[in-house]
Amino acid sequence: MAIPIAWLKRATLCELRGEDASDLEPRLREVVQAQPARAVFRCALTHLQAQAGREEEARAGGSAQPPSARTPFGVPRPVGPS
């Protein structure tokens, strides 16, 4: 989990410094694919795409939902009666 967070921090620092973070997009895309239940990574990728002027791509990516077998925090849902 440390590596994905490092990419997220780098993207945040680039934005705060006013630097171009487009070179981080492939890395964030890999993180989103590896951890689809973690909404924070999808949001960061969507934000980068929107900042780059690719609003349609950002809208399409932002609508992706995490797997239904997990909660928004990535914790498996309990099985059986509640």
The unreliable regions are: none
Report the radius of gyration as a whole number of Å.
Answer: 14 Å
The average pLDDT value, as a whole number, equals 79
The count of domains is 1
User: What overall form do the CA principal axes indicate?
Assistant: globular
Largest sheet, in brief, is: none
What is the beta-strand fraction? Answer: under 5%
Span of the ends, CA to CA: 30 Å
Structural class based on helices, strands and sheet pairing? mainly alpha
Number of helical segments with 4 or more residues? 4
User: Can you give the helix content as a percent range?
Assistant: 55-70%
Number of strands: 0
Order of helices and strands: HHHH
Can you characterise this structure?
The chain is mainly alpha-helical. The protein has one domain (2-62). The protein has 4 helices and no strands. Helix 2 packs antiparallel against helix 3 (39-51) and helix 3 runs antiparallel to helix 4 (55-62). The longest helix has 16 residues, at 2-17.
